[in-house]
Amino acid sequence: MKRLLVIAGMVGVIVFAGCRDSTSPRANNPYVATITQIHVPQQVALWDTVKLDFAYFTTGCDSSTVQIQQGDAHLRFTATGYPTDRFCVADLGGIHRFSYFVFPPHGAPLSVTFTEPTGGDSVRTVTPSL
């Protein structure tokens, strides 16, 4: 009886997982992840190293990347999530920390843009200190 109960429980978990995956397909399209906890210094000297920190969120067991577009006095960060077909026991999502260093010489002022999924990008400006 105990063995039958264990087997029935295992079958139930497999059926639930299979039903979840087959009845709720996920689009395989990449998406822009939400960026938060942005830390950018307000002022730095021209020959200082600038440290930029932020966190971003992905859903489930999705993989992710951070794309960086760099100009003379401008940086743009875009965090992108990529849906996977992996079975995910806890569909909680992930919080990822990211740090980036800008070594001298760098533009002054330095404009830093963080791409947001809603379209209202977050922009920070690092001004030169005197």
Relative helix content: 10-25%
Summed over residues and divided by their number, the pLDDT gives a mean of: 81
Order of helices and strands: HEEEEEEEEE
Low-confidence stretches: 18-23
Strand share of the residues?
35-45%
How many structural units, i.e. domains? 1
The main sheet comes to: 6 strands, mixed
What is the rounded distance between the termini? 80 Å
Number of helices: 1
Radius of gyration: 22 Å
What can be said about this structure in brief?
Helix content is 17%, strand content 44%. It contains 1 helix and 9 strands, in the order αβββββββββ.
Please tell me about this protein's structure.
- By secondary structure, this protein is α+β, with helices and mostly antiparallel strands.
- It has one domain (27-128).
- It has 1 helix and 9 strands, in the order αβββββββββ.
- Strands 1, 3, 5, 6, 8 and 9 form a 6-stranded mixed β-sheet that branches.
Kindly list the characteristics that best describe this protein:
alpha+beta, elongated, single chain, 130 residues, 6-stranded mixed β-sheet
SSE layout:
Elements: H1 2-23, E1 31-32, E2 34-39, E3 43-44, E4 50-58, E5 63-70, E6 74-82, E7 94-102, E8 110-114, E9 122-128
Parallel strand pairs: 3-9, 6-8
Antiparallel strand pairs: 1-6, 2-4, 4-7, 5-6, 8-9
